[in-house]
Amino acid sequence: MGAGKRGVLTAAVTVVCAVTVLAVPGTAFAAPTPPPDPGTTASVTVVTSDVELEAVRKKLDKLYRAAAKATDEYNAAEEKARQQTAQVVRLARKIVEGREKLDDLKDRAGAAAAAQYRGGGLPPEARLVLSDDPQDFLDGAGRVRQEQHAAKGLLGEMARTQRDLEEYAEDAREQMRKLEAGRKVKAAAQKRVERQIEAAEKLEAELEQEEKERLARLERQAAARAQATWLSSGVLDELTSKATAQGREAVAYATAQIGKPYQWGAEGPNTFDCSGLTSQAWLAAGKTIPRTSQMQWQHLKRVDVEDMRPGDLIIYWADASHVGMYVGDGVMVHAPRPGRTVTLAGAGSMPILGVVRPDPAAE
Known about the structure:
9 helices
């Protein structure tokens, strides 16, 4: 981003932080309700305080984080299942090719046996000894050696092909066992995701519309406070807005998805989860990276937060259950959680575990 745009964003962040400090959650005040007339039944309105809503916010955050972690487990099982399925397909092809080769070798061995039968059933050595012509004897000796080598080679190749087939079959059975175990892991993770999301949605459904609006405000205020604390460390002074060519492509893809709904387990093109967005953005830039936020954290090159550049991935929470993509000026793009859409947010609005770089070799 340009210096002018950066200045506008920084000023906007400063204003948000100032408003946040002034808008620290407190007790909500309702207009006084006149006492009921004698002899009538009073209608009692329960006003949920911001303190109570803050507790709800934290509980929702905990539920959705648990869902995110289970989603990562589901995605990992899904990715592993893809790899194992592809391996089973490759092994199946090898088995088919091996059987075709073995059939061909058997045909060749059968042809050799038939030729021997047509020669009177005598082995080549016997026919050679019975020859009256010395030259035939000498010529035949060479042919016998060739036939012996050919027969030995044919039998050896048949034995090797048979061993290969047995190994391919055992490997295929092992991959199928792993695939079945992976399906169980995936199914269990799916149940955990659905259970956590259902509990969160039920909790939100019990709130009145006014309470939902105040809850959303509390969420924004909590994120703004975290961002303000992060910015106050001076980290923005150290960050660079210079991205690599691939990094710019990844950022362009990710930001083009803004407004699309979050859907756990989704990789686009219409819905995304957090790591589905980042992995597809980098795939669009020509770079294949791990599918889940935890695998991205484990396998991609780690860089200091002070050195991150647009396109780098910011891993959040101690369990690496969330990921966003840094776009510059202290801002990241991410797919937040169920019920939300892909959006821009402060890079420091959640606890940062670390930063990883998909293209460390690029200048």
